């Protein structure tokens, strides 16, 4: 039997999602909990990795069992097992060949910037008090839409066959006291969102024009783009799947 875990976590205290020797990771923490509660080693596979310090409002991971399980009971026991940094929102049975990574249609991220100093947001947003021209940032962000090569915004050392992504949403919004960048795509490259945000901030500061931003996309060179912003403001916010992955 295969199940999808819907997980939320605060990534501040973890060295990212992916299991690493001698490091505290989310995958290791969750795998250990499920394995102990089910009484058998139970690997999990996520929709994608998140880096150290990155958070998730919704991460999806799958795991397998030999027999059917009581999902409500397991959800309750897992939430009692975990620290306050991890929450299991739901566990649902899916088809045996459903895959948390390969079957995902889209992934959405949010990046939070706080322009007014707030001690309660120190671990959940990037404090950036400089005045920004949000209209120009949105004009530049609109140039990201569609299927393009985003090598300029990818970490250099990464094992991928190509740098092509289809971005369907890229927009800055003011939400309460935060400035939030919303971006949705079929896939993301390593470090892509943080590099996009860092480069768009250069547009907002007036250091780059929209035309400069277009040239950076076309250049396909990471050194042409801006710096990567800190991980603490980044959230994996939603992962979507076709209805065909779910059991009837």
UniProtKB/TrEMBL annotation:
The alphabetical list of record keywords is: Isomerase, tRNA processing
Q: Which domain of life is it from?
A: Bacteria
A Gene Ontology biological process in which this protein takes part is: tRNA pseudouridine synthesis
| EC number annotated for this UniProt entry | 5.4.99.12
Keyword flag Ion transport: no
InterPro entries, A to Z: PsdUridine_synth_cat_dom_sf, PsdUridine_synth_TruA, PsdUridine_synth_TruA_a/b_dom, PsdUridine_synth_TruA_C, TruA/RsuA/RluB/E/F_N
Annotated GO MF terms:
RNA binding; tRNA pseudouridine(38-40) synthase activity
According to the entry, every stretch annotated as the Pseudouridine synthase I TruA alpha/beta domain falls at 8-103, 140-242
In the UniProt record, the signal sequence range is none
Family annotation (Gene3D superfamilies):
Pseudouridine synthase I, catalytic domain, C-terminal subdomain, Pseudouridine synthase I, catalytic domain, N-terminal subdomain
KW Metal-binding (keyword) present:
no
| The reaction(s) this protein catalyses | uridine(38/39/40) in tRNA = pseudouridine(38/39/40) in tRNA
Q: Where is the active site?
A: 51
Annotated residues that bind substrate are located at 109
Q: Which family does it belong to?
A: Belongs to the tRNA pseudouridine synthase TruA family.
Q: What does this protein do?
A: Formation of pseudouridine at positions 38, 39 and 40 in the anticodon stem and loop of transfer RNAs.
Its quaternary organisation is:
Homodimer.
What's the protein name? Answer: tRNA pseudouridine synthase A
Q: To which species is this protein native?
A: Roseivirga echinicomitans
């Amino acid at each position: 039997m295969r199940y999808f875990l819907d997980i939320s976590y605060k990534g501040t205290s973890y060295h990212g999602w992916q299991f690493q020797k001698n490091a505290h990771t989310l995958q290791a923490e969750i795998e250990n909990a499920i394995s102990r509660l089910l009484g058998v080693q139970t690997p999990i596979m996520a929709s994608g990795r998140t880096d150290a310090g990155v958070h998730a409002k919704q991460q999806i991971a799958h795991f397998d069992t030999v027999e059917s399980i009581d999902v409500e009971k397991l959800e309750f026991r897992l939430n009692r097992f975990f620290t306050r940094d991890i929450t299991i929102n739901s566990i649902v049975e899916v088809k045996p060949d459903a895959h948390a990574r390969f079957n995902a249609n889209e992934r959405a991220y949010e990046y939070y910037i706080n322009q007014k100093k707030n001690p309660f947001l120190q671990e959940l947003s990037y404090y950036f008090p400089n005045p920004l021209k949000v209209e120009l940032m949105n004009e530049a962000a609109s140039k990201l839409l569609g299927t393009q090569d985003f090598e300029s915004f990818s970490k250099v050392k990464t094992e991928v066959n190509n740098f092509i992504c289809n971005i369907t949403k890229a927009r800055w919004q003011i939400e309460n006291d935060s400035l939030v960048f919303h971006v949705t795509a079929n896939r993301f490259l390593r470090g892509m969102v943080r590099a996009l945000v860092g480069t768009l901030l250069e547009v907002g500061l007036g250091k780059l024009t929209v035309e400069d931003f277009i040239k950076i996309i076309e250049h396909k060179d990471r050194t042409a783009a801006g710096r990567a912003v800190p991980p603490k403001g980044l959230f994996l916010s939603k992962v979507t799947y076709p209805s065909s992955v779910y059991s009837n």
